[in-house]
Structures are given as structure tokens and as C-alpha cells.
Prior knowledge:
2 copies of one chain form a homodimer.
Chain A: E1 2-11, H1 15-26, E2 32-36, E3 41-48, E4 51-58, H2 64-72, E5 75-83, H3 86-95, E6 106-108, E7 112-117, E8 127-132
Parallel strand pairs in A: 1-4, 5-8
Antiparallel strand pairs in A: 1-5, 2-3, 3-4, 6-7, 7-8
Amino acid sequence: MMNKIEHIGIAVSGIEKATSVYEALLNTKAYKTESVESEHVNTVFLQSGPNKIELLEATSADSAIAKFIDKRGEGIHHIAFDVDDIEAEMARLKAEGFILLNDKPKPGADNKLVCFVHPKSANGVLIELCQSI
Amino acid sequence: MMNKIEHIGIAVSGIEKATSVYEALLNTKAYKTESVESEHVNTVFLQSGPNKIELLEATSADSAIAKFIDKRGEGIHHIAFDVDDIEAEMARLKAEGFILLNDKPKPGADNKLVCFVHPKSANGVLIELCQSI
Lengths: 133, 133
């Protein structure tokens, strides 16, 4: 089941400046920073009511975030939905015809198992499923 | 005060097909459709936990949605935050240095007063403030 939007991921060029911007925008302090080496990103999390905003900065030109910014500039990179059972939800979406970008859940930031759905399947939106570990 | 993400707006080329896609993705039926003539858009709303997804289709080449899709293709167009007092929040953001795209709140879809913040102010993300009328 898709419980709710867990977070919105925003690709940024400089995470320190972006953190100041989003702290001012949301009128709240970031509560967590984390590097995800497998994805070549630094992340910063801010709470917004029941949801989170995740700022993502590339640490390498190989990062999907670096490629995204090269192509489109800074902006919203993905929407992540909280699910209870990621494998069941992956099977359901696959049966519905969605193209999944990974066959098995993989570790993501913030103690989650994640899977991405191809933007072609969802009107140009990169969708992430995430299940708390 | 920024209470929460009220909705995420997604620019789509064909709203009927997109509605089917997002109904399948979220495993829920759309609960509302609305045309906003002043903005030259048709909208469809789906609930996702405490938030909403708003699909937006242009009804005229003059629409901001048509221009967005021409430039970038379908995808996430804006994030809207629910606020209690839109004029107070506009004043706060202006004082913080954010560039507002309208001087006064204007009527939007779903019985809201809205104001947009320039994407240049927020790392490429178009931010909407919305207050229920």
C-alpha cells in the first residue's frame, strides 16, 4: 500500500546554500545530513508537516544527481512514497505495467529500502518507493 | 506558517491517460476534476495520505503548463504548501529575500488563494503557497 509521500527529493548544486534557502522557506532547521556513498550523494533532510524534503548534492560526476543537473538544472528530482511492503508494491506496479528501475529493493538514505519507477511510466516523474528498515 | 505539502502539481499532456496512470500508481481513484479558466488548465486531484497529487493539462498554448511541457516535457511542475495566512507568509518570504511571482494572492484551483515563489529563489523549484478560502 502507498501510505503517503515520504519525501520529495530536490537536486541542488551546493547543499550548504540550498539548506539555508529551504530552512528559510520552510521556517525550520534541517534535522539530518547523510552521505550515501553508493549513490554518490550528500543529503540533507527537513521536516514539513507529515512529509520530508530531501536535498541531494552530487559528490561525483557519476552520480544520477550530477547528470540530472547537467541536463535540466537544479529542481525536483523524485517523489518518494512510503510503503509497508516494498516487494508486494513492486509486484503490484509491475503487474500494472510500470517499468521498475531495479529488480530488487536496494538500500537508500535514511534507513530505507528503495526501488525506483521509470519516469516514462509516470508522465516524466521519477517515483521512488521506500520502506523503513 | 507552512503547515504541510498541500499538493504536488504534475504537468501532463493528456489528462485522461495520466489519470489512469496515477490511479494505478497510487491505487486510488481520482476524487475531483476542475477547470481553472484563468490559468487555462484542466486539473484532476488524487489523495495520497495527508497530501494530494494535482495533474494539470493545458487547455491553451498560453498556459504556463503548455510552456513548461514544450520546454522540459511532462513532469513535476510545482510543490504547494498549505499556509494559514497567505499574506503573512508572503511578507515573511519577501523579507527573507524570496522573489514572489504575484504581489497579491490570486484564486487557484480547489478553493484556494495562491501565490507562487520564483524557481530562481528555490533551487529551480516552483513553490506555491495556498490558503483555503
